[in-house]
Amino acid sequence: MDVMALVQKYGKPDIFLTMTCNPNWEEILRELEHGQTPQDRPDLVVRVFKAKLDDLKFQIFYNHILGVVVAHVHVIEFQKRGLPHVHFLLIMKSGYKLTCPEQYNTVISVELPTKERYPELHEMVVKHMMHGPCGSLNPGNVCMKNQNLTCKSYYPRQFTDTTLQGKDSYPIYRRRDDGKKVHVRGHVLDNRWVVPYNPKLLRRYDCHINAEVCSSIKAIKHLYKYIYKGHDRASVSINDANGNQEINEIDDYREARWVAPQEALWRIFAFDLSGIFPPVLQLQLHLPGMHLVSYRDNADIRQVLDQQSASETMLTGYFKANCEFPWARSILYREFPEYAVWNPTLKKWKKRKQRTQVGRIISAHPAEGERYYLRVLLNHVVGATSYENLRTFDGVVYPTFREAAEKRGLIESNNNIDDCLTEAEIFHMPSSLRRLFATILVFCEPNDSMGKDISSFPLPEIEEEHDTMYGELRLVRNMRAQSDPWFSKYLLRIGNGTEETVKDDYVKIPDEICVPYTGVESDIDNLIDRVFPMLATHISNSDYITSRAILSTRNENVDDINMRLIE
After folding, report:
1. How far is the first Cα of the chain from the last one, in angstroms, to the nearest whole number?
2. In the prediction, which pLDDT does 455 show?
3. Closest CA to 372 of 398, 410, 331
4. 187, 133 in Cβ contact below 8 A?
5. Which position has the higher pLDDT, 166 or 433?
6. Which of 125, 230, 335, 534 is deepest in the core (most CB within 10 A)?
7. Are 275 and 307 in contact, with CB atoms under 8 Å apart?
8. Is residue 50 classed exposed, middle or buried when 0-12, 13-18 and 19+ CB atoms within 10 A define those classes?
9. Are 305 and 296 in contact (CB under 8 A)?
10. What's the rounded mean pLDDT across residues 305-327?
11. What whole-number distance in Å separates Cα of residue 470 and Cα of residue 459?
């Protein structure tokens, strides 16, 4: 959530960088005693990698070896064999972003350098940056997957004379068929096997250091999820060696992971496992008198509550700052950390004089009611001096935050639901997005503005004398979801990701609501007749219309079905 707040402010990441520890670094080997190997000195490996990492951060963030970085995150992980490695995601300043394939070639290379001109770099590429081999050359390589014996990293790549922009993927880098070949692990390899690297960084650090341009990737949440995926885990059980005990799979289940000496020492030395810049401050969100209060175990609760500080929070401090400082009254709550610093001891905001920080209001679900509408108001209203002031509009103090938001036009025509889904699109993963959408359909009463306006269809005008629909028929809630328990549970199963799926994560439609598909044009007409039998007879019956629905995966299919119904 915090790293996506950086994306919301600074844009998508531009460069994905991974550096892996090289146990044969000179700094490690020269400190070994006679007969020792790097595996015997995990403390030495950890300290040298930390020094290399600090130097890498200095080169990137202060010497700007890749350009000026405006925001970044990095995470330290440990391989199964124990060696540490680090993942970086870099967001570049606007003037240093890589926006076209020609610029990619200035940072990333996937070709073997000329041995005569760059002998040391050539040796490092051969030693650290050649994939595999795999495929037919080595079917047993760890990167091979499924029975088709295909490489999960798609090596060997194809030759190409120019760099091409990726379509929701990494770019297709220039790999020229220039005749250069090298011997790697008993096989002859060429440019098709080179892993993307930056020549300057590889030459400086002499280790596996993979660099990729990722600005063309749309699924940026998956990039951040990858670097924050956590440690490898395994399910194990402990049983009697004699096999006499009764096995209870639930009681014996254990979630375990291997902690190598290098990781243990990294934690003992208290080295950071991750970093983020600028830092992100999570802003408190609570209704009046419903905030958390911390106190010691032996403290008297009445004395704790009587203290002035017990009622002061980031949010109430924001209200006070708006009362005291004119400069604060034009700043939204989520933007406040960029201009002010929160003092947790004094529990007050003071004007920021140096550095920067990004704010993120703690999320609230639409089903939370007033707390959610309070968040809606804070995201749009500046200069609020109190909860009551936030509920005030045009001189009228409204009793609830929802009414105040409605009067301000913030939740008309499903704007609040649209805003909720738009923000969730930035922060949430697909499974939680589906669950949120299903919850909105069932419980939040979205009106018909979530679809296409009925006036956009070529409907004939109805003369008043033939108009049997008195008043206006407006869909303000999902009536079938609330009146049909099976359908409601079906929607929630889709949202929770528990509904049965087929290939590529498509939802399987239950047979009881599925009309057989034969591949002919009349299939859609049969579907309409099945769902809306005797439509002409019941066209003016609102219960008949609203108790039926045709689910479709695409808007264009919805439009096609609507047109057929009209015709």
Report:
1. 48
2. 59
3. 410
4. yes
5. 433
6. 125
7. no
8. middle
9. no
10. 88
11. 18
Residue 338 near residue 356, CB atoms below 8 Å: yes
Q: What residue has token string 């006679």?
A: 34
pLDDT at 479 over 60: no
Sheet with 69-78, side-by-side order of all strands? 209-213, 15-20, 84-92, 69-78, 274-277
Structure tokens at 48: 């040298």
The DSSP call for residue 249 is: H
Over its C-alpha atoms, the chain yields an Rg (Å, rounded) of 30
DSSP letter assigned to residue 162 = S
Q: Phi first, then psi: give them for residue 34, nearest 5 degrees.
A: -60, 130
CA distances to 510, 553, 561, 563, 564 from 557, in Å: 19, 7, 6, 10, 11
Global pTM reads 0.69
Place of tokens 């070994």: 32
Percent of the chain surpassing pLDDT 90: 38
**Assign residue 145 a region: left if phi > 0, alpha if psi is -120 to 50, beta otherwise?**
beta
Contacts of 31 (CB under 8 A, 6+ apart): 41, 44
Report the DSSP pairing between strands 144-145 and 274-277: unpaired
Q: Based on the number of CB atoms within 10 Å of its own CB, is 506 exposed (0-12), middle (13-18) or buried (19 or more)?
A: exposed
Say what the pLDDT of residue 237 is. Answer: 57
Strands 358-361, 280-283: pairing kind: parallel
**In the block, which residue shows the tokens 């004119």?**
326
Cα separation, 419 vs 409, in Å, equals 13
What percent of the chain clears pLDDT 70, i.e. is strictly above it? 80
Helical ranges in 18-63 per DSSP H: 26-29, 42-61
Separation of alpha carbons 258 and 79, rounded Å = 10
Of the ranges 161-165, 367-371, 563-567, which one carries the lowest mean pLDDT score?
A: 563-567
CB 337 within 8 A of CB 254: no
Nearest to 553 by CA among 515, 506, 510: 506
**Tokens representing residue 97 in the block:** 């972003």
